[in-house]
Design a protein that fits this description.
By secondary structure, the protein is an alpha+beta fold. The chain has 5 helices and 8 strands; from the N terminus they run αβββαβββαββαα. An 8-stranded antiparallel beta sheet has the order 1-2-3-5-4-7-8-6, sandwiched between helices. The two termini are 21 Å apart.
């Protein structure tokens, strides 16, 4: 855990000590947590972070991968039940702090966003995997030092080298939605969409809701 890390706090701290927008929608202590995404282009957009302070989900120890994937799948199912099929993506941080990254927070997190956004149109030179577990457990010798991962609804997991463009996938999604300048979550937090997400998803019973 890192005392200065948002996702470490979300995974660790009591709910009433967090701002409303950082309170977990789902949390499995020791496994992961999901929160409404700052910069929510659409209602239902959440971020899912493992409990471990690692730069990407490919850094997860092999013995915890299945637990995190199970948790992530529960989050996806929860969001999909309310908002429809979801697109996933991750800006996987590189291992070297000197290199530019697409990710803006060094703690691993996967974006879950309702809808389809034609990410295949980016024409990245991707490697394909049948499922998230296969992607997460790629041998270290076959991994990129910084990567881009996405999965469109009913599609395979797509894996490519990081292009070093900040918030790469968010830029594309913003353009697809006709709001190309809104990719920067700090400038365009979209509070109304975040409130909708929190209200809708926390009203749904879930066995792993924080107590």
């Amino acid at each position: 855990m890192d005392d200065d890390c948002l996702f470490c706090s979300v995974n660790r701290d009591p709910e009433d000590t967090l701002e409303w927008y950082d309170r977990p929608i789902l949390r499995d202590h020791g496994t992961g947590a999901a929160i409404a995404a700052l910069g929510s282009f659409v209602p239902g957009y959440v971020l899912v972070a493992p409990a471990w302070h690692l730069s990407s989900v490919q850094g997860l120890p092999i013995n915890v991968v299945s637990g995190f994937i199970r948790f992530l799948t529960e989050v996806i199912d929860l969001v999909s039940a309310r908002y429809g099929p979801c697109t996933l993506f991750e800006h996987g941080s590189c291992r070297s702090s000197e290199r530019r990254r697409s990710a803006c927070i060094t703690h691993a997190h996967i974006h879950v966003i309702p809808g389809r956004y034609s990410l295949d149109a980016l024409e990245l030179p991707v490697r394909l995997f049948d499922d998230l577990t296969s992607f997460t457990t790629v041998p270290a010798t076959e991994r990129y030092d910084g990567y881009l991962m996405y999965r469109e609804p009913q599609g395979p997991v797509c894996y490519a080298a990081d292009l070093g463009i900040s918030q790469y996938f968010r830029r594309h999604v913003a353009a697809v939605l006709g709001a190309a300048d809104d990719w920067d979550y700090a400038l365009f937090p979209n509070w109304d969409n975040m409130r909708h997400t929190v209200q809708e998803l926390t009203s749904t019973p879930a066995k792993m809701r924080i107590q």
